[in-house]
Here is the input.
Amino acid sequence: MGVNHGDEAKRSHSTTQRPISLDEATLPHIDRTLPANLQKQAERYLLKRAKHCPIVSGSLEAHLVQHPVINHLGRATDRFVIPSSIRAIALDFDGTTVDLQVSEGVRQKSWRLAIQAEGTRIRGSKLSREEIDFCHRPAMHKTEKEMSVIIADQLTRLTQSWVNPTQMWNDWIQAQQQVISRMRRGLESSIVRGVLPLLREATSRGLQAVSVTMGAQQLVQPMLQRSGVDTYLNPVGHVFINMHPKIEGKPHPAPYLLACQKLGIQPHELLVLEDSSTGALSGFRAGATVLLQPSVNRAKTLVEIRHALRHENPATLANRDGAITLLSRQQGWAQVGFS
Here is the structure.
């Protein structure tokens, strides 16, 4: 029987034009009970994986919040009143307390200055921008300790002189102190809207406040101090995860459980302020009440949480409806108050 090349071409064309199906092994969180239009939007969003994705509309976000699979998110709200049962507030740092772009900018600029300082010490002359990029780029988005090792290795390859990671770490600490001291006024204006008034009101009512972060203490502490946030925080309760190597980081519940232990409270007495899915899940799993204000793509954050909750231990979900509340407007923490 002869081959109908026209039909074959049509099949080939339809195959290439057909919407790409999700890999259910890696992205099983598209619920096929969603309306077809929302299902397609979610698929396109998850495949694109962009930081800002205009194809995800507010209708998808609203549906994700209200869908039974993630009913533990509760309802999105324009105003959140802190329950009287809350005795302490725990804040993440990057994106929750300080604008994410500012804190990340300080971190990366400090590393670049540290690379220049160490390279100049070895060579006796300044490194070019390309040489700094060679050392810095492979280490981006790693933890500070990881960065010191990677950058030291890259700088060793570049200069053919061994660079001690500990020395690289010390150079970074000195560099970030310089960066922060130069932008003192900028730090005050980079605090997320509503943070200082909320902390001021909370502490005046007898609530404790604490920072719980995956960031390095050597970077976070100076920024908290120079911005004025540290004035309202209980230093006894500070939790810098990198200072506790035996403690799992977010989204594990350990960070917020440790905060409760240090503050002498029960998890249900803690209100967690977060901007990411990992942080929100950490607070939720610890048993705290979580208030979520995504600092990046909101729909992506909700999809990640919904995916995690679908695979959560049922015991963790029991009686936790509304334990994660989404602030529906991008107004920082100005929407949070007391009755």
Notes: The beta strands are 80-81, 88-91, 208-213, 239-240, 270-274, 289-292, 324-326, 336-337.
